[in-house]
Amino acid sequence: MKLRSLLLGLALGALPMLHAATTIVRGPYLQSATPNSMVIRWRTDATEGSVVTYGLARNELTSSEKAQGVTTEHIVQLSNLKPATKYFYAVSGAPLAAPDGKKAVAEDAPGRAPINSFTTPPAVGPAKPTRVWVLGDPGTKNDIQRAVRDQYLKFTGSRATDLAILLGDNAYPDGTDADYQKAIFEMYPETLRSVPFWSCLGNHDGKSANSITQSGVYYDIFTFPTRGQAGGVASGTEAYFSFDYANIHFISLDSHDSDRTLEGPMAQWLKADLAATRRDWIVAFFHHPTYTHGTHNSDREKQLIEMRQVFLPILEAGGVDVVATGHSHVYERSFFVDGHYGSSETFDAARFVKQKGNGRTDGDGAYRKPRTRAPHAGEVSVVTGSAGHASAKPVTLDHPVFVAAFNEPGSSVLDIDGLKLEFTFINDKGEKRDWFSIVKVEGSAASASSP
Amino acid sequence: MDATFHPRRRQAQRLFSPASSILRFMRRTLVLALFATVASVHAHPEIDEALARLNPLIAAEPANAALYLERGELYARHEDGVGAEANYLRAAELNPDFPGLARARGALALASGHAADALPHLDRAIAANAADAEALLLRGRARGALRQNAAALADFNAALHHLASPTPEFFLARAAVCANAADAVASLDEGIARLGSVVTLELRALALEEQLGRVDAAVARLDRLAAQSERRETWLKRRGDVLARAGRAGAARAAYTAAVAAIAELPRWLQQSPDTTRLLAELRRLTASNS
């Protein structure tokens, strides 16, 4: 017994030394946020335990959660959290609480891990003003990516970002772990510590990942819900999934590496997922755009054609409001449209534009849509794939479905407040280059044209 | 979690359909084809970008099989089967045992609809690494396409041992080569046990349960799906349909009535949606017809 106590004491005594010798080389970063849970991940340069100490005040980290075993890749899920609540947390290899377990961990205590914070998503259903940062094809690791980031941070200022969405091609050129380290983890470190990031798979991510086997860097780095834990119907895969935030239902599809046929599991799941949601807003995102005449051409490329011909009809029938994509390194934004699944030459504005105008409250007026989930009531498709760079070569940007198009670096901002949605494109100079609004109208008050 | 994961593991699995005669022609005219792939113009800008990086490397190291494999995979990803095959053949000429090459060639042949051609490549890949889950999966698919179901099943089962996160697609593919419907249901249930009550697996199992006359088991699946859904009305309606088809009119009517009640619990704005009002009308008709 004495020997066991001695060994235990030695082991415990060694923990602080291990902790001191270990460096966090990635993160912490937040994943799979729900009103009651948060996954916190980080990487250390040497194996150690995985402990998150957290609490409701910076100087009162009174709770802790740990994962079993020792590792360099740390994944800890916090559960039983309160919705819409700010939590402070610190990650470490061993519990931070004082040995007597009574004292709180003070922020300035010597040798303590840095304290970060996050706010849990609100309860699902009721509206809450929500800001989403949308980054398409960001992963160039260069000054343009940095400028786009900085201009968004300047734009949002003290307004907190509630969640961030990566539209794929997150890390060039090959989506390797090293690419991700530079393009994501060293590019957005502060944001990653406080804002949950969601993603879809891009073709460059797909160079180092495989949706069929759910393996590779992309699938190693991200933790996404496969069992409907964050809302929506269980997909059984991280390649495509859905989640809820307040009164918004988000859908992430894999346009690169999963079966894109109508009979395939992804399409089947999507139909069931759309039929199951009760949220006011539906926002879908995936990498390959349904329409583009930017650095890619949706008339000629297989993935783009299939997403337009197979998945867009399902989404529009299910009441989608906004479809956000990347891949084409430009910004292109459609009219309020429905039903156009052919090539650009077959686009007939009289037939496919549900409401004319630019959708701007300070222009032609916001797009209006009945709140009742009417199929094919109109959606806006946005290609925002220039968070890392725009095209160096001239691009035509002449697809007739679009009302606005720019060959400029930038990222997009999605703001939803109750029954109003606002979408804004901010370029790398901080200029607000495009914006539009959609307003959900009770009953049958939505008109077929802009007010 | 493997930080050393190699980018070349990614395989070409998208469907494209170059004619087999073209592929055979490519084998005979390797040099011309290689030249053509280097010089061709593509709709995909990233092919051009990647070629701009790869071509000088290949020019500098013309005997490097890895570079040809990489270029072949680049073409395969963009559904250029001719370009992919030409580069794979060159890589094979330089080093037939280069890691990943046999699997890539098998994947390409399978994706182009030539399952029989895929088999020798995949056999070679598995011989080199019996734990290559991706190659086992691909061979399972190839054998399934050739109706060698028992062998396909063996491959899928072997792959499962090496897959940390099998997908719904995996279990659906395995179920498709099972000897009978009961085995297929068991196979799908193994997937459900691992992945949860995934709608795609449950629906396939549901169809098989009905085929087997297992009405209660089919209904239990619908109940599971309804339990995880915020909108239960469509699942309850399907429950009624299954029961009606089984001749259980009373139980069917109860399910339809429950679906109507579920609609009544929806927020008013969702009750007013065209889909919901259409469903409600149909449920009322079905309730009456099952009285």
Any overview of this molecule?
The complex is a heterodimer of chains A (451) and B (291). Chain A is 19% helix and 31% strand. In chain A, helix 6 (265-276) packs parallel to helix 7 (302-317). Chain A is globular. Chain A has 451 residues and is α/β, with parallel strands linked by helices. Chain A has a seven-stranded mixed sheet with strand order 8-7-6-21-22-23-18, with helices on one face. Chain A starts with a helix and ends in a 10-residue tail after the last strand. Chain A folds into two domains: 2-119, Immunoglobulin-like (Sandwich), CATH 2.60.40.10; 130-441, Metallo-dependent phosphatases (Purple Acid Phosphatase, chain A, domain 2, 4-Layer Sandwich). Chain B is mainly alpha-helical and 291 residues long. Chain B folds into three domains: 1-129, Serine Threonine Protein Phosphatase 5, Tetratricopeptide repeat (Alpha Horseshoe); 179-228, no CATH class; 231-291, no CATH class. Chain B contains 17 helices and no strands. Chain B has helices at 20-28, 30-39, 45-60, 65-77, 81-94, 101-111, 115-128, 133-145, 149-162, 168-176, 181-195, 199-211, 215-227, 233-245, 249-264, 268-271, 274-289. In chain B, helix 1 (20-28) packs parallel to helix 5 (81-94), helix 3 (45-60) packs antiparallel against helix 4 and helix 13 (215-227) packs antiparallel against helix 14 (233-245). Chain B is elongated, with a radius of gyration of 25 Å. Classes of the chains: A alpha/beta (451), B mainly alpha (291). The interface between A and B is large, with 61 and 57 residues.
